[in-house]
Amino acid sequence: MKKLITFGLTALTFTFSPLALAQEVESRPATEIVSMEPDKEGRIIQATVNGMVCDFCAQSLTKVLMREEAVETVQISLEAQFVTITVKEGMSLSDEVVEKAIYWAGYDLAGIERA
Amino acid sequence: MKKLCAVALAGVMALQAAPAGARPVSYPQGWTLMQMNEAEANWLHLHYTTDPRTSIGLKIENQGYADHVFVGGQYNRLLKRWNAPNSQGNTYFKVGLGVADGDFNQALDATKAAGFVRFAADWETRRWFTAANASVYAREGKAMTSQKARLGVAPYVADFGALHTWLMVEGNWTQNRDADQGQDAFTVTPLVRFFKGNSLLEVGYSSNDEPLLNFVYRF
Prior knowledge:
The complex is a heterodimer.
Chain A: H1 2-15, H2 30-36, E1 44-50, H3 55-66, E2 71-77, E3 82-87, H4 95-104, E4 108-114
Antiparallel strand pairs in A: 1-3, 1-4, 2-3
Chain B: H1 2-15, E1 31-37, E2 42-51, E3 54-63, E4 68-84, E5 87-102, E6 112-124, E7 128-139, E8 142-153, E9 164-174, E10 186-196, E11 199-205, E12 211-218
Antiparallel strand pairs in B: 1-2, 1-12, 2-3, 3-4, 4-5, 5-6, 6-7, 7-8, 8-9, 9-10, 10-11, 11-12
């Protein structure tokens, strides 16, 4: 009976989870994003992040960065350890704000570049 | 006590329907639901992260073999995090306070104040995973200790958004339990971990013939 309840609860939980929903963020390498979207020139920030080793890490970082009003999109490459932020047209995002958001998500900024 | 468990369980289940990872501290303002059904215990933990180092939540834990059902609050504190270019390490302190039925098989049965303290550590790369924790559970003069360790390897390294798969083995040591209850003092559980997006699922089977079915959801 205990095993039945265990399986039942887990099946129910899993059924109602949005596991199959589309991801908010694509996983293309950040360098590719810059070259493919020239219209966003000047609005791209590439941050190298230490400690970003799993999907949960990337999800956290995405959610925290997306809270910034100036952020249009966030794209992450776990392979390259890059976070690519596109800033909304006409708005700005300072290095300090990016660093604080990354720290707030639980990670460390290792480097930052603007394209 | 059973009514309290039922209400708390229903509450946690209801919250799953809200817009929705495995760490005890997530990102600020993030919620995490952890439902663990392991070799010797089943538990539900719902926590809310208040700052990058702290989360608070509710915990319902049924240690079936130890005759211990705990309901209460849990405080999780990230003691130290090491962020390196390709790895991350963490140490955590967790404490729970509430009430418990059962008495670690000591032939007493009443609802009493109870609590637990746990130290946990993990280190992972995108290929390797290690974790360990040590816990002390107490219920008005009675105590039980438990230690766990886990080692995992990813057969392939997936990027963000893809399905991540891990092969893991968990060892669980328990003390101060009644040897007549039939449980092992040491169990080994091979398991497979899948995670994608906000959801994590683990499936395994322990050396004492109990299934492992864990689920974590962050929202």
